[in-house]
Amino acid sequence: MSLSGFLIRMNRTEIESELSSLPLGAFRYFDTIGSTNDEALTWASQGAPDFSLILADEQTSGRGRMERKWFTPPRSALALSLILRPTNIENAHPSRTTGLLALSLAESLLQLGLAPQIKWPNDVLLGGRKVAGILVESSWMGERLDAMILGMGVNVLNASIPPADQLLFPATSIETELGRPVERGSLLREILSRVLDWRPKMGMDTFLKAWEEHLAFRGQQVQVEGRSGDPITGELLGLEPDGSLRLRNEHGRSVTVRFGEVHLRPLA
Ligand code: BT5
After folding, report:
1. Lower Cβ count inside 10 Å, N or C end of the chain?
2. Which residues contact 104 (CB under 8 A, 6 or more apart)?
3. What is the rounded distance in angstroms from the CA atom of residue 158 to the CA atom of residue 227?
C-alpha cells in the first residue's frame, strides 16, 4: 500500500475480517458519528452484549473528561468504545478499567518499537506528547453497575494531530513517532487481543505491576492539580491497589490521589 493509501476511510468489511478471530459480543462501525461513547451508552441501555465494540472513522463531538473535546478527524485515528458487562473482578476493581485500556495500548506500542508511557490516569504518551486519551463511563441500574463503557481515542496517522492551539498538552501520533504509517485495523486487533488477555487478570498484582511499570514520571517530582484546592506536589511513587496514584510529599509522607479529575505535570 502506498503511504497516501493509509489516509482512507476505514472499510467495514476489512475491519470485520481483521477482527473476526476475536470474541466480540457485537460490532458497530460508523464512518462518522458524534461520540462512540454516547452510542455505547445508548446501546448498553438497549442490551448490548458483553465486549461489544463501537468503532468510528471520525467523531464530530468526541468527548474527553470534564466536558473537554476529543478531536477525531477522518481517515487517521482510532475512536473506539468497548461495552463491558462487569464481571466480579470488574465490580471489585472498577477503577482498574482505565488501566486495562492504557496498558493494552502501551504494550501494543511497545511491540512497534516505541517507548510509551501512561500519564495517570488516562493518557498515553509517546516522546512526552499525548498520543491517546481514555474515557471510562458507567451506567447503573439502581444500585447495580450495569455496564462500563471504555472509550479510547488514538492518534494513529499524522493527520489526526489537532492544531496546537486547541490543546492543553502537546499531542503526537504513532506515525510521527515511528516515522512510518501504521495500519489502523491491525493496531486495533492488537490492542483488543491484549485487552482480552489482561481482562481476567485485572484483579491480580501482576496487572497492577505491569500498569505501574509504564507510568510516566515515576521517581520524579510532580504536581497534581485537582478541580479545586491547592495542587499536591511530591515524588511519584506508583499506584495503590485501587488504581489511585501514590506520591511522597515534601514531608516524606505518603499521599494518595484518588480522583480522576487531575492533571499530572512534571515541575518546571
Ligand atoms: C481524554 O480526556 O483524554 C479522554 C479522551 C477520550 C476520547 C475517546 S474517543 C472514543 C470515545 N468516544 C468519546 O467521545 N470519547 C472517547 P482528557 O484527559 O479530558 O483530555 C482532553 C484534552 O485532550 C482536550 O482538552 C485537548 O486538550 C486534548 N485533545 C483533544 N483531542 C486530542 C487528540 N486527538 N490528541 C491529543 N490531545 C487531544
Report:
1. C
2. 191, 192, 194, 195, 198
3. 32
- From CA 214, how far away is CA 100, in angstroms rounded? 12
Phi, psi of 130 (to 5 degrees): -80, 125
Q: What was the pLDDT predicted at 4?
A: 47
Residue 35, ligand 1, Cβ within 6 A? yes
If you take atom 27 of ligand 1, which residue's CA is the nearest one? 167
Q: Which of 70, 72, 177 to mutate to test the pocket of ligand 1 (most atoms within 8 A of CB)?
A: 70
What mean pLDDT comes out for the span 65-79? Answer: 95
Residues in the chain: 268
pLDDT of residue 212: 96
Mean residue pLDDT of the chain comes to 92
Q: Residue 153 carries which side chain, given as an amino acid letter?
A: G
Taking the centre of ligand 1 as the mean of its atom positions, its distance from the CA of residue 64, in whole angstroms, is 4
Residue 179 to residue 235: CA distance in whole angstroms: 33
Q: Residue whose CA is closest, atom 34 of ligand 1?
A: 71
Q: Is the CB of 167 under 6 A from ligand 1?
A: yes
